[in-house]
Amino acid sequence: YVGGYFKSKGNYVVGFDISKKAITHARRTLDNAFVVDLENDPLPRLKPFDVLILSEIVEHLFQPEQTVQRLIKYLKPKGLLLITTPNIMYWGNRIQFLKGKFTYEKQGHFDESHVHFFTDETIRILLTEKLKLRIKEESHIGAGQLGSFLASKFPGLFAYQLVFVAQK
Predict the structure, then answer these.
(1) What is the DSSP string of 73-137?
(2) Which of 28, 33, 90, 123 could form a disulfide with 15 if both were Cys (CB 3.0 to 4.6 A apart)?
(3) How far apart are CA 29 and CA 25, in angstroms?
(4) Does the pLDDT at position 107 exceed 90?
(5) Is residue 90 pLDDT above 90, yes or no?
(6) Do 39 and 61 touch, CB atoms closer than 8 A?
(7) Cα angle at 154 between 151 and 160, to 5 degrees?
(8) What's the alpha-carbon Rg for the chain, to the nearest Å?
(9) pTM to 2 decimals?
């Protein structure tokens, strides 16, 4: 759906997904789409892109650093990486932890397919120290209007979703 939006604005858009069903749908909209396990499969040869979007991906990876390193090779020299991931230390989650609750769910922060959990600090370390990218912008998502304001000031506590734009 994100790719379709950018395609409708006149951009050349390619998608990757491990789901054959998702790629079948994406091929109706995007310029190209590949069924691929980003961690294990060979990646197709493509020309470099201006922007790489990893929306709700890194928390599903067994080796996020190595996989994102593979993917940013697709970026042009000044290319941008837009990355989003849930903030496991969001205040609502902290309350659940204080109550002694941690239950995997079908979706959300405790999605049963999440294998890595990120905080504001750990995603920054991944981007800047491990991947050697420069954070250009951030616009985190909080719960409601007040939550979004607080997420912009204190993302480690109030950001429900962490959103970064980083550059090579």
Answers:
(1) GGEEEEEEEEEEEEBTT-HHHHHHHHTT----BSSSTTBTT----B-HHHHHIIIIIIS--EEEE
(2) 33
(3) 7
(4) no
(5) yes
(6) yes
(7) 40
(8) 17
(9) 0.92
